[in-house]
UniProtKB/TrEMBL annotation:
Keyword Signal among record annotations: yes
This protein's record includes keyword Signal: yes
InterPro entries: GlcG_carb_metab_protein, PduO/GlcC-like, PduO/GlcC-like_sf
Any single Pfam family the record assigns to this protein: HbpS-like
Organism of this sequence: Methylobacterium brachiatum
Signal peptide from the UniProt entry: 1-27
UniProt keyword annotations, A-Z: Signal
Coiled-coil ranges (or none): none
Name of this chain's protein: Heme-binding protein
Length: 144
């Protein structure tokens, strides 16, 4: 009989706070107020901050970006446009194709996701990348 359980790495709240703080520091450095969400591999919110001046509704898209990146183990914003609406509708608005969500991958395992919203797409992605670097997570697209 196969083992009924298996060990799994989990993202800690301390790591989530480190990711959040590094992302916020980068957003401050580039002068863009952002909403930043960090979730675990199951999509549970571990850390969130809405910077002064960040767009109110971008808090929802930041969380959706984080959940999408964690659930797919891939950066958001890469689906063909004709699938983007379908994904959003099929998930009840919990998943999105907006850029700014990156998976948190360490040693090949997806431990969660970071989602950033309120800036331009390239700014959101840059802020998310800063969060990944803070804990040595893999960049899903290092060439970009």
């Amino acid at each position: 009989m196969p083992a009924p359980t298996r060990p799994a790495a989990r993202l800690t709240h301390a790591a989530a706070l480190t990711v959040l703080q590094a992302a916020i520091a980068h957003a401050e450095a580039i002068g863009v107020p952002e909403n930043v969400a960090v979730v675990d591999a199951d999509g549970n919110l571990l850390a969130f901050l809405r910077m002064d001046g960040a767009k109110l509704l971008s808090r929802e898209s930041a969380l959706a970006k984080a959940v999408t990146a964690a659930s797919n183990g891939a950066a958001t914003g890469r689906l063909p446009a004709d699938l983007a609406v379908t994904v959003a509708l099929a998930s009840g608005g919990h998943l999105t194709n907006l850029p700014g969500g990156l998976p948190i991958v360490i040693d090949g395992a997806c431990l969660g996701g970071i989602g950033v919203g309120s800036g331009a797409s390239d700014q959101d992605v840059a802020v998310a990348r800063a969060g990944l670097r803070a804990i040595g997570a893999q960049d899903p697209d290092p060439a970009a």
